[in-house]
Write a structure and sequence with these properties.
Elements: E1 2-6, E2 9-12, E3 17-24, E4 32-38, E5 45-50, E6 57-59, E7 67-72, E8 77-82, E9 91-98, E10 107-108, E11 112-117
Parallel strand pairs: 2-11
Antiparallel strand pairs: 1-3, 3-8, 4-5, 4-9, 5-6, 7-8, 9-10, 9-11
Length: 118
């Protein structure tokens, strides 16, 4: 499986963006997919994840209530809907795949840059 994130851009505070993670490979539906972000000069941090069926999701406290993760296995896509954006959300966002649901992400895609202006 290979992953590619897209959908980043420049948005004003309070606005919305939707990121997409597109996967190639027939085993995509078996993967837990996570979104992570890394801001300049900061460590990479977990944002959200979704299990293979889409029935289980987790969010970082900093995005809970503002971001929603979802997936469409028929299209091999995972989405991150980001609402009420804040300047602190500015980062490169990556999607990653965890084949066995252990929390160990072994596949990483190229990131997409999200910039939120105040």
């Amino acid at each position: 499986v290979q992953l590619q994130a897209s959908g980043g851009g420049l948005e004003q505070a309070g606005g919305s963006l939707r990121l997409s993670c597109t996967a190639s490979g027939r085993t995509f539906t078996s993967y837990t997919i996570g979104w992570f972000r890394q801001a300049p000069g900061k460590e990479r941090e977990f944002v959200a994840d979704i299990n293979w069926s889409g029935r289980s999701t987790n969010y970082a406290d900093s995005v809970k209530g503002r971001f929603t993760i979802s997936r469409d296995n028929a299209l091999n896509k995972v989405y991150l809907q980001m609402n009420s954006l804040k300047p602190d959300d500015t980062a490169v966002y990556h999607c990653a795949g965890d084949r066995w649901g252990t929390g160990s992400y072994e596949i990483w895609g190229q990131g997409t840059l999200v910039t939120v202006s105040s």
